[in-house]
Amino acid sequence: MTLRKYISAAILLATMFLSAQAAQAQSTAGSMSVPEIQQCLCLQPRLQPLQDAWLQKQRAFDEQNAQLTTVSQEVTAQRAKLDPNDLVGQQVLKDLLAQQQGLRDAISTRALPEVNQARDAYNAAVTQYNGLCTRPRYSGDEEKARQGLACVAP
User: Fold this and answer.
1) 37 burial via Cβ count (<10 Å: 0-12, 13-18, 19+)
2) Is 65 exposed, middle or buried (0-12, 13-18, 19+ CB in 10 A)?
3) Residue closest to 97 by CA, chosen among 66, 63, 65, 74
4) What is the C-alpha to C-alpha distance for residues 58 and 118, in angstroms, rounded to an integer?
5) Which of 52, 74, 111, 141 stands the most exposed, by the fewest C-beta atoms within 10 Å?
6) CA–CA separation, 139 vs 154, rounded Å?
7) What angle do CA 122, 124, 125 make, to 5 degrees?
């Protein structure tokens, strides 16, 4: 055999050896252990309240945006029919503009940050859960994990 063939054979054997080790490591790391399953079982119920909080903030945000749209339409209608000599109409328009600005301020300073914070908290929890808990589980290990499971409150 030539030197080139020895090197090729050595590389082939080393590659096969490393592939076998990687496959073995992957098979042992591929399925979840009982403590990991317990951690996931405790994390899972924490997702729903975070999602509910986010959806509640989103509904409030959407409601305020709908109010802003309505007031903006009223402003447009009031401007279109406003007689420059109508002092009452001018006051109505000023009040509508103030209401419109108040809604914009409330949305930008309170509602939007709240919905973003709630969404980010939910997404972070889902990312954590998915990072830890989406590997395969053996049913026997999951049964063991459920026995005597005691989750610590967050």
Assistant:
1) buried
2) middle
3) 74
4) 9
5) 52
6) 27
7) 65
Structure tokens belonging to residue 114: 């709240």
Which tokens hold the place of 86?
Answer: 């109508």
- Identity at 34, one-letter amino acid code: V
Q: State the chain's maximal CA–CA distance in angstroms.
A: 107
Give the end-to-end CA distance of the chain in Å, rounded to a whole number: 66
As a whole number of angstroms, the distance between CA 153 and CA 133 comes to: 19
- The residue to which tokens 């959407």 are assigned: 62
pLDDT in tens, 71-92: 999 999 999 999 989 999 999 9
